[in-house]
Amino acid sequence: MGTPGRNETAGDSAMPLRLGETRQFARVRDLLRGAAFTEPTICQRLKLTQFDRILGLTREKAVLSETPDCLDILIRLFLLRESLSLEVMRPLIPAETLEALEALGLVALDPADVGKMESPVALYPVGNLFIVSDRWFPPRDKAPIPPQDFVFPAITANTSQFLAGLSDSPCELLVDLGSGTGVGALEAARYARRTWAIDITERSTQMAEFNRRLNGLENVTVVCGDLYAPVGSLKFDRIVAHPPYMPAPKAAQIFYDGGTDGEQITRRIVEGLPQYLLPGGRLYCLTMGSDREAQPFERRIRAWLGEQEQQFDIGLIVRRFYKPGELAIRWAVKTSSGPEGASDLTKALTDLGVERMVYGWVIIQRKTDERAAFTIRREAGDQCGREEIAWLLNWETAARAPGILKLLAEAWLIANPAVEFCTVHKLKEGELVAEPLNLHTGYPFDVNCKAQPWVPYLVAQCNGKSTARELHSFCIQNELISAETPLEEFLKLLTVLISGGFLGAESPQFPRTPWGGPAAKG
Fold it and tell me: Are residues 67 and 185 in the same domain?
């Protein structure tokens, strides 16, 4: 994560927007909707394959009509940072709407040419929302020094990944910590009865409140403060966060810096869960942490929960690994600290015992019963999203419920179509010798598992037409397993294969497999 364009820091800058009247926001909203100011139409107009490509688009490369329509005007003003003459704008934007744009601070006279208007901010669609943030500059543009409290755009790949991974199941109370533009809380307003957007900077808070009003949302509360501090004694059934997580030994920008090891903000979020997360509730945090000598990231997360750690389940969904030196170079480029700065940060991480940095989802749920807590790690497959993550957490929860093996015995088993069986033969003492069989799947998670040679025959029978109990009998009758193998032992093996995503259990008691399958029978 980083700022597009130049990366020097500076002091806070003045907020260009004004919180005007409801009718003014409504007029602007109607203008954007009427012009079809959406991700698909903007991509089509600019010939972009992905909406976030606009972050690197220069005015010179943007192909727009010489006789613009309203959509062209909005793209030029809010996405390409152009100044436009009033003669071009007035025929396409009603006078009352143009007045609303000016009153809210979305457009202003260009000080270099009083006959033209410009926008001091970026405004763009995110799904069904309209979001305002600070303007970005393509790398080749001569950009001004951004303020330390720069409000990061909500259309980067990382932010899109954050939104795509959040559960959209209904909930009561949701808080978005370090909310920036407020996009997480605003998006969650669709399925949460009430949401809060909290950010430590006044600038982000003001923009988030502007975005709340721009989208006409009444069930969102925007407040300024340090993480949980503004909510007092409130407790939530969902907490979401995309915190600053880049290793940075000295401050650069608030949205970017996570302390020397990158974990400073994430750790404080986790430490607050015993006080602020309700039983049955979940934290969804897209962040980065470190695997250290004999201390994988998920084990250290559990330690952050303190004395109440056994009340919580932890899931870590890894999207990418980084070497410490890779991130040190990024920080050195961002801060212009050169090779010496990169070397110093690499040494600082090495001195902490960091072996590699882990980027991905930290999902923590508070238990509702006395079962044992679980801690799991998976590497995300290419198509892993909210449904796949939800399935994993729900299955791991169900797998630890009382009587799970009894329920599993009567469930129908279905194989993952993405499963692969691989074996390698190596030359040993003049003969080819087979290595242990490897099971692999890239969906929903990238998982490898050593298995006995009979397991592929079992998986081939898992077509949703046989229960686990029937499959146990099949394996015995065909001498795949010993006739003395207890059903319980067989079922325990199945729980491992299901957890890895190789098999699914079709039953009303279990979450439906993300790759589908026949409906549960009976």
Answer: no
